[in-house]
Write a structure and sequence with these properties.
The chain is an alpha+beta fold. It contains 6 helices and 4 strands. The protein has a 4-stranded antiparallel sheet, sandwiched between helices. Strand 2 and strand 3 form a beta hairpin. Helix 3 packs across helix 4 and helix 4 packs antiparallel against helix 5.
Length: 203
């Protein structure tokens, strides 16, 4: 009778080992996923977006398939943190991240690039596609609500064919974003308007 139970025992042992292996693989995948994810916003982090950019660049070199980068920065974010506190600043980051994710297509990529700066990678066949996405982003971010102040972002974009390399493309999009930020600040100064974060907290 004892011999009858030996194969069964072996089967149970093998099954348990398989389950254990599958469990460890799931944990490993989860750790990898978390390492690619910005903890605050749930977007890709900078470490995750870099390999994606490398793949996009390799594809461009092989097939000349164009792609576009958008760099976004929240206006007056330091003042938001200083005036309303970092918990409100974090809430603004999460809200903007949610709006950006909802504005792009499944094949596009959104990352928190650092601080209050976001990077969007858009695969395009026509510039009209990029313009439509940019219009959705502008409308979506403008709809961010629930705060005692308005939330605005400055955006700079560039497509790969404008630059000699991936790094030059990032620098160009970043430069255009800061040009927009400066222009908006100068416009507010001429109008004598308040910055984003000078609104009063509600009673």
């Amino acid at each position: 009778h004892l011999q009858r139970f030996i194969p069964l025992t072996n089967s149970i042992t093998i099954l348990l080992l398989q389950k254990s292996k599958e469990h460890h693989l799931e944990i490993s995948r989860e750790i990898i996923d978390r390492s690619n994810q910005d903890v605050l916003t749930g977007l890709y982090n900078r470490s995750a977006i870099e390999p994606i950019l490398e793949r996009m660049e390799q594809c461009y070199q092989n097939t000349a398939e164009n792609y576009i980068l958008l760099m976004l920065d929240i206006d007056d974010f330091k003042q938001i943190n200083d005036t309303f506190g970092h918990s409100i600043g974090d809430a603004v980051l999460r809200s903007v991240a949610e709006k950006l994710s909802a504005s792009v297509r499944e094949r596009d990529y959104v990352a928190r690039y650092g601080g209050d700066e976001f990077l969007i990678v858009i695969t395009v066949e026509r510039m009209d596609d990029a313009n439509a996405i940019l219009a959705r982003i502008n409308a979506s971010v403008c709809s961010v609500s629930g705060f005692a102040f308005d939330v605005f972002v400055s955006v700079g974009g560039a497509h790969r064919k404008e630059s000699d390399s991936k790094d030059a493309l990032i620098a160009l999009a970043d430069q255009r974003m800061y040009e927009m930020k400066r222009a908006r600040a100068e416009q507010r100064a001429r109008k004598g308007g308040e910055s984003t974060a000078t609104a009063q907290e509600p009673d």
